[in-house]
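During the reporting period the student researcher (J.K.) took over the structure-prediction task from the postdoctoral fellow and processed the backlog of single-chain submissions. One of the processed entries is reproduced below for the supervisory committee.
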Amino acid sequence: MTTIGLAGDTMLGRKVAERLAEVEPSELFDAAVVAVCNEADILALNLECCISDRGSPWPDPRKPFFFRAPPHAVEALSLLGVDVVTLGNNHALDFGEEALLDTFAHLDRAGIAWVGAGEDLGRARAAVVVEHNGLRLGVLGISDHPEDFAAEPDRPGIAFADLARGVPQWVGDAIDAVDADVVLLTPHWGPNMTAQPVPHVVEAAETLAASGVDLIAGHSAHVFHGVRVLGGRGGAPIPALYDLGDFIDDYAVDATLRNDLGLLWLVTLDGSRPVRLEAVPLALDYCFTRLADPDEAQWITDRFTTACAAMGTDVQEADGRLVINWTP
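J.K. obtained the following structure tokens:
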């Protein structure tokens, strides 16, 4: 058995960066959260910022937020045991190409693989393969926004895919090119602050499941969504985690959607097949993430169970975790 850990939007810039100027990276996460992360054999997350002390804000007067973490923020990722991050999102180029290239370098030095962006179009669209005890996990990252961050043959950027118009052919080709036992696709898709996946995300997930991936783990909404099992090649069940929610940030809290309450996800593989999900309730305090207290965990449980039921997925509770089994 192999356990794949998945964390959602991880924003280490702005006020989190200011906190990092005063405390050690270990002060961003409760020790119990780090312990859950360390249960994973391979841990992946969405890094929703660049890592650099250089660059200038992206020159778009309509863009309201710019996230840049200091170089030593990578120590927080190492503390968690992160193996791979996706940079395919709408903040990778917040401080331009120079800062994005710095991000690659800082991650490389820390031994953390990255997908979803690159120094050119080919690298941005390419998968990476992470190994554990002989299992080869191929990871691909894509983003459906913003188009002006898109990598080009001679320009750094993200793996942009206009999913609102359907899944482009190159995504299927990239999936086919992965040489791995298991393929994880991690898309940054849909708008912020939605309680459920929007129609183009639902449609894209179905196409991607049929294209040869084994697990889909999305993000962008800042709110966790339900889980649905889709049909893959040959009828194989493909879990779609439509949105992982947030993992750490300094964001304003929506009183209804409660983006300050989230989940840390552990997917168990039996060989190459996902057979079990354990989702651990989290609370995101200001620039600090901890395990949810009982009242917070109940709110998360109620919301997740309802969201999954609407997708035909049964959720059980076990030892404070939310469990989905895909065994026959």
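The committee noted the following: The chain has a mean pLDDT of 96.
J.K. will present the remaining backlog at the next meeting.
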